[in-house]
Amino acid sequence: MTRRTDAHPDMTRPGVGAPLFSTWRVGTPERQKETVEAIADTWESRPWPTEGLLGYYLYTGHDGTTLLHHSQWADEQAYEAFTKVHRQERVDEIDTAVPGIERVALERYRHYRSGTRPEAEPRVPGCIVIVDVEFEGPDPDRQRAWVDAVFEALESEPNQHPGGISAHFHLSTDGTKVLNYAEWESAQAHIDALSGPGNGVGSRTPQWERVQTYPGLKGSTVSRYSYALGLVPT
Questions:
Q1: How much is the pTM?
Q2: d(CA 218, CA 220)
Q3: What are the distances in angstroms from CA 177 to CA 119, 135, 221?
Q4: Which residues is 220 bridged to in the sheet?
Q5: How many CB atoms lie within 10 A of CB 185?
Q6: Rounded Cα–Cα distance for residues 201 and 62 (Å)
Q7: Which GO terms describe its molecular function (predicted)?
Q8: Over the stretch 2-19, which tens digit does the pLDDT of each residue have?
Q9: How many Cβ atoms from other residues are within 10 Å of residue 122's Cβ?
Q10: DSSP 8-state secondary structure symbol assigned to residue 145
């Protein structure tokens, strides 16, 4: 069966071959809450659909209008099998409970690199920051090189902000995007980091300038979310 969990997903979990991220636009904070509960009710009333799905997690956007979905699959074949057999009935039930949901995008990724601060006591993230980076055309080598450049900038950063917990970089399977799933102590900690002297969370260093002016970099967006729901098999 299906059960709820308060535990955040392990972004480096072994066996996750296909991490997927998608965004829904629902309109208001009230509808965000209603949609989360509709998803929970729909999933908890059914058996867990497949062993190939390791976990399904929901986040409410601080913009008051969006939901972020993160699902961890063993491989893309498991997701495709789910869509053929189980997905539509769940979508229909959710749409009946909360009409008018706009499903903006579903993106397929592969985990590439993670960085976590070594700490005596692990901290529970109070805010998830999603950084979406887009490049001009597909280039898997450029995706990896850009992420490596970010790590060089982080390692040389003279003013590490204490509110940052971890960063988990994913490469889109089409070769055009990078997604950073970053865990922060709180939204205010992230806001404070952005108010520093640099452009973003980093200082004005040559390493960060290289990241921000990387050849082929088209643009990026930053969005903050709160963890709302985790669903896992019993």
A1: 0.95
A2: 7
A3: 30, 6, 11
A4: 133
A5: 17
A6: 19
A7: monooxygenase activity
A8: 999 999 999 999 999 999
A9: 10
A10: H
